[in-house]
Structure formats: C-alpha cells, structure tokens
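Translate sequence into structure tokens.
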Amino acid sequence: MTFHTTFDSLGYHFRDLKTLMAKASPARSGDMLAGVAAHTYEERMAARIALADVPLKRFLQEALIPYETDEVTRLIVDTHDAAAFAAIGHLTVGGFRDWLLGQCTTSAVLAATARGITPEMAAAASKLMRNQDLVLVARKCHVTTRFRNTIGLPGHMAVRLQPNHPTDDMRGIAASMLDGLLMGAGDAVVGINPASDSMATLGKLWHLLDDVRTRFEIPMQGCVLTHVTTQIQAIEKGLPIDLVFQSVAGTEVTNQSFGVSLALLREARDAALSLKRGTIGDNVMYLETGQGSALSAGGHHGVDQQTCEARAYAVARELKPLLVNSVVGFIGPEYLYDGKQIIRAGLEDHFCAKLLGVPMGCDICYTNHAEADQDDMDTLLTMLGAAGVTFIMGVPGADDVMLNYQSTSFHDALYAREVLGLKRAPEFQQWLDRMAMTDAGGRPVSVTADHPLLAYG
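Result follows.
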C-alpha cells in the first residue's frame, strides 16, 4: 500500500511504510548516506502529514523488516501485549502523539500501555514531535530498576563513573575512581572500558572494582565493558562480576556483527543471575545502543537509523537491564553530523526507550571531527535532565583519554543537579553522607588528608 500527500497541485508518493518513516525523519547525515532521507524540506513535511494519518494498527500488519528473516522483528511481534495496546489501538500516529501529550495520560497510564507500544510506533510518534514534546512525554515515563541501589526514581539522576585508562593502568584507574567518588559520581555504575581483552588484565579490573566496593562498603555496582562471551567465561572462572555488559542493536544482522544473538544475551543474563550478587534487586544487565550502528554494519534493511535504534530497545526490554544508554554522538558525523543532529537524536532515543519501559540514560558525547562542541552537550544535558534521564556519564574532565571522545564530566553532573534539583540514588547518597563527603544539600565537600578514601592503595 502506498501513501501520498498533495500540496496544491504537487503530489508526493511513498511506496511503503518503511519509506514513509524514513522520509518523515528529521534530517541526519546517516539517512542521507543510506539514501533513504527526504530530498527536500517539502518532501519531509509531506511524509509527516501522511504519517500522521497512519493507524497504529498498521504497524502490527506491516513489518518494516520481515518477520521470517529477523529475530528482533519476531521478538517485537511475539511479545506484543494486545491487552495493553487496546487503550491506544483506535488511534492514528498523529492521534497517538496528541494522546501522549495530553494531561490525562499520566505516568501510571503510560506504564500500563508500554508493553502495547512497538518500537516502530514510538519512532513514528517521535517524528511528529518537537524537541519540547519529547522532553515532556519522557518526563512522565518512570522506569525504576535495582541491583545494589535504586535507579530511575522521579527527580533522580545517576552517573556512570567512567575511569578509563589507555593502558589499563590500575593506579590510573583507581585515581579516576577516587576523583569521581569524591565528586559524588558512581551511583549508576563504575564502568571501565578496557584497552586489553586479556583475561588476566580483565580479572585485575574486576577485582579492583570489587575491592574498592567491599572495602568502603559502597552500595554500587561495577562493570568491565568487554564482550559478553568473555564475561560468561569470567563468570565460569568465578570472577566477581556484577553487571554483564553488551552493545545491542535493532536488527539481527547488526547484532550478528557484534557477535551476539538473543539466545546468547539470554544466556549471559542467566549466568549473571546465577551469581546472586545484587542485594536489593536482580537487574543484572548493562546495555549500550547508538543511532547509526545498523547502517555501519550493513544491517539497516533500508530502515531509517532512528527507527533501527528504537528497535534495539525491544532487545533491551527483553533482558530487564539495570541500565541502558545511547552513545549518541560517539559513532561519528557520518551518522549525526553536527550538534543539532546529536541533540535531536539524544532526545529521540531517550523518549522512545522510556516510552517502551526501558531505563534509559545517555552518553552525551561527540567525536572531535563532528561539527559539535561542549556547548551543544550542555544543551542536550540540560534538556535530558529536564526529561528525567536515568543516568549520564562522568568522565574526568569530560575527555576520555582511552576512547578519544568528548563526553560529560563529574562537574557537568553537579551542574545538572544544582540547576534541576536532581538527586542521586538514595542508597548511594546515604553512603556519601556516612563518609562525610557531601553537605546537607548533597553537594560535595572538601575532605581532609586522613579521609579513608585517600588512604586507598
């Protein structure tokens, strides 16, 4: 079935739902590279007008990527909750947008409907929304998870402490951890991207994280971001693993390029659960996503990159993770060219994930060859903070010296807390209070030379 819109005497035709979705997407370099983007502003607006009239039920009848050849499509279709969908099943995409923005659509209503919303429905609605709309609706979506502390409570924002080092030097990593902890970061996770994939080195990193946590009785979780198969092997060896990490995407082909499948991811989750290391919850996965990964892997099937990204949240939802984040500007300007595109993508990713019930954070970042700067990141940070983002990154100086990209710093998190009144995970804040590291308002304070943390090592 084709779709069409007419402006005066000029007609626009879109051969199928996949084409319509792509043409309706806000401009971004990745879709242009893939050859699926609208050619003009007029064509983009024509596509949006046509998309607004598409019934939500159409997305259950027409898969953008065939059911027979893609396990992510099968996951989306087979786990769709028809009872939850009943509340919105009569709506068009445009009507769904209006319903989401309505005052009567409360947090409780959105939570009850989440399992009835497919990623493609969420992506379609986002294409009709302004940035402020994405913020308003995402702010109403509350997704709470637990392992050793509670993540995602309304009015809270956690921080991943990211103490990477270009040679995996243990003292350097420990110093960055100390820096972050003293600045009140680390309640989301202390997550290390290792430079090496040697099991000997990885084991030292896992033991370092566990030693710091147990020595100071910190209600936090650690993670070493290596491949999921390596983490399964490490669990079998008895290494102290809290969260299992993996990058995931929205198509089977792209996940295969990462060396994973749904079956492998479920196996990894089961392995982590078997350790029973969580004290207040069993959300044991940490997942990363990012617009452009499907195109980069040749696995996009002609679907626009934002819709491919939204499909990754179906994979995430299946695994009941503690944390998920988009590495929004990390993949490069080939996919998100400048600050405007990065800001838009970050807001879209957060909106779609939260709408589907995924505990979504964001690595608010860019690479040095993108047309973006730290002012753009300040804008995205502020908007995501207002939108209720689950967590952000805390990188020393905002400059990751191992991965060579620009993210957010410990100080950036303090800015967001001060301006927007965002709190830390309650258990983590209680620990900071016990350690005399923050004042009554949660702001970091100077510590003396004999503070226990300064004696580590």
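Note: The chain has two domains: 3-140, 145-434.
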